[in-house]
Specification:
This protein is α+β, with helices and mostly antiparallel strands. The protein is built from six helices and three strands. The longest helix is centred in the first third of the chain and has 13 residues.
């Protein structure tokens, strides 16, 4: 996982609504976007925006079935993120403190 991907995940998780959505998605296994929208007091476009950021970060995947869209958490994405936060490769690239 490169630094750009680490930043995408950190950005995605930094928003309280997205973090709560990811928890709901993870707890559900798979959930329709409509059902997810009913669980949050935000507009449909806002739900779509948050899901797009979570998907770009690699935290969720989406599939379409007819007119419905379903999302599920990507297994291992958060584990990979946490492992890469303090990887030896990253430690070597950091500039020394002065």
């Amino acid at each position: 996982m490169d630094e750009r991907q680490l930043l995408r995940i950190a950005k995605a998780l930094s928003d309280q609504t997205r973090l709560r959505m990811l928890r709901e998605i993870s707890a559900s296994g798979e959930i329709s976007c409509g059902e997810l929208g009913r669980r949050f007091p935000v507009s449909r476009p806002t739900v779509s925006h948050h899901l797009e950021i979570l998907e770009e970060a690699g935290l969720v995947s989406a599939r379409r079935e007819g007119q419905l869209h379903y999302v599920k958490a990507v297994p291992g994405a958060l584990v990979a993120f946490s492992r890469n936060l303090d990887s030896p490769t990253y430690r070597r690239r950091r500039p020394a403190r002065q």
